Amino acid sequence: MKQQNFYIIDFDSTFTQVEALDELARISLAKHPEREAIYQKIEDYTNLAMEGKLSFSESLAQRVKLLEANEEHLQKLIKHLKKKVSKSFSRNADFFKKHADEVLIVSGGFKEFITPVVSQYHIKKENIYANTFVTTGDGKIIDYDHANPLSEEGGKVKLMQQLNLQGDLYGIGDGYSDFQLRESGLIKKFYAFTENIARESIVTKADHVTPSFDEFLYVNNLPRAISYPKNRILCLVIGDVPADTINFLKKDGFSIRHKTEFEEKYVADVGMLILANGEKIEEEKLKRAVKLKTIGYLGNARNKLSLQICNEMGIVVFDDAKANPRNSLFIPKRVADFMNKGTTYLSCNFPNLQLPAIDKSHRLIHIHKNVPGIMAKINTIFAKHDINIVGQFLMTNSTIGYAITDINAQYDKQLFKSLKKIEHTIKFRVLY
């Protein structure tokens, strides 16, 4: 019989983008004359505990004491946290629905604000383990339940020992208390979650660093919203490129390398290129960049790279021919839209196609030479594999055919091999 898996997920700075007690302080102390100094104290206590430099119990006691919060503040916090769920968790809601019995939220935070947030994602209330506040009759928070093991140093370890789950346990979190589960031997692997914050003292101890929940699902071959995590796509930035351009793509989740030239060691693996105005790409290197999907040129790309080679290899090129300084995000937005949705709008070499994102489907991109009969062959393959087509788009120019097909979530993996074998195919990929 197959061993059951359990996924032990932290809440603060993991399931959500923020530390909830820090956010609660900003709400409850908004009118306090010394609020900035108190905010800083609370954040310091949080970070010291997360980095293993202060016992969790001491950190928690000090933070709750400083809050001066009540039920009304809690309701405002819950509303705020619902908007601050980490993007990669939010887009994988279906995973939580399908694996509701296997997902546990284990946090040093508080059920009063955790339960309303994670329950939206089909996580069972009985699988939420956290602290609880002690309040007065009028709703003022004055303390917490000290009998709860999660309020103590090493609390997650004590709780998991009590639960004694039978199966393989995987822990996902950003702090020292999450690593302690691995250190204790209670979990099989610890994944340091770095989408929101990367704590060097924790990252160096992790079995695997996961910049997104997509990455965790990918390495464990679990169902996910995105077929290939963006953090695995190498985006090479070359030359004098504005910081805003780089930060935009980094925030979107791509793996960024900023270099002064197109170094040989990156040629085989680069998936995206951003080039500063004036930079050139040698034709020989371009031909060998087999994983390259798109190029963003911060200026006029004419005579700086071969559009003919890009067409032959199915590489979508965006440039800013007028080098308009008004917006350093013009090119990165175009490139990101292509990588995320398949949109080629304002490309200088591909048919221009604007695409909506469609939920609960997989988007397949088929780039081919513009010859008659390709779409008929594509749809014949879909029919043979009993594929339900949700939406389909085709645009052509004189040389290229660009076909986008959205299909339902159920498909045979052999389908991809068949699509790649169609004569005159230039490039095929699953977008999400």
Automatic annotation (TrEMBL):
<dbReference type="Pfam" id="PF00389">
    <property type="entry name" value="2-Hacid_dh"/>
</dbReference>
<dbReference type="GO" id="GO:0036424">
    <property type="term" value="F:L-phosphoserine phosphatase activity"/>
</dbReference>
<keyword id="KW-0378">Hydrolase</keyword>
<dbReference type="GO" id="GO:0051287">
    <property type="term" value="F:NAD binding"/>
</dbReference>
<dbReference type="InterPro" id="IPR045865">
    <property type="entry name" value="ACT-like_dom_sf"/>
</dbReference>
<dbReference type="InterPro" id="IPR054480">
    <property type="entry name" value="AHAS_small-like_ACT"/>
</dbReference>
<keyword id="KW-0718">Serine biosynthesis</keyword>
<dbReference type="GO" id="GO:0006564">
    <property type="term" value="P:L-serine biosynthetic process"/>
</dbReference>
<dbReference type="InterPro" id="IPR050582">
    <property type="entry name" value="HAD-like_SerB"/>
</dbReference>
<keyword id="KW-0028">Amino-acid biosynthesis</keyword>
<comment type="pathway">
    <text>Amino-acid biosynthesis; L-serine biosynthesis; L-serine from 3-phospho-D-glycerate: step 3/3.</text>
</comment>
<dbReference type="GO" id="GO:0005737">
    <property type="term" value="C:cytoplasm"/>
</dbReference>
<dbReference type="InterPro" id="IPR006139">
    <property type="entry name" value="D-isomer_2_OHA_DH_cat_dom"/>
</dbReference>
<dbReference type="Pfam" id="PF22629">
    <property type="entry name" value="ACT_AHAS_ss"/>
</dbReference>
<protein>
    <recommendedName>
        <fullName>D-3-phosphoglycerate dehydrogenase</fullName>
        <ecNumber>1.1.1.399</ecNumber>
        <ecNumber>3.1.3.3</ecNumber>
    </recommendedName>
</protein>
<dbReference type="GO" id="GO:0000287">
    <property type="term" value="F:magnesium ion binding"/>
</dbReference>
<dbReference type="Pfam" id="PF12710">
    <property type="entry name" value="HAD"/>
</dbReference>
<keyword id="KW-0479">Metal-binding</keyword>
<dbReference type="InterPro" id="IPR002912">
    <property type="entry name" value="ACT_dom"/>
</dbReference>
<dbReference type="GO" id="GO:0016616">
    <property type="term" value="F:oxidoreductase activity, acting on the CH-OH group of donors, NAD or NADP as acceptor"/>
</dbReference>
<dbReference type="InterPro" id="IPR023214">
    <property type="entry name" value="HAD_sf"/>
</dbReference>
<keyword id="KW-0460">Magnesium</keyword>
<dbReference type="InterPro" id="IPR036412">
    <property type="entry name" value="HAD-like_sf"/>
</dbReference>
<feature type="domain" description="ACT">
    <location>
        <begin position="363"/>
        <end position="432"/>
    </location>
</feature>
<comment type="function">
    <text>Catalyzes the reversible oxidation of 3-phospho-D-glycerate to 3-phosphonooxypyruvate, the first step of the phosphorylated L-serine biosynthesis pathway. Also catalyzes the reversible oxidation of 2-hydroxyglutarate to 2-oxoglutarate.</text>
</comment>
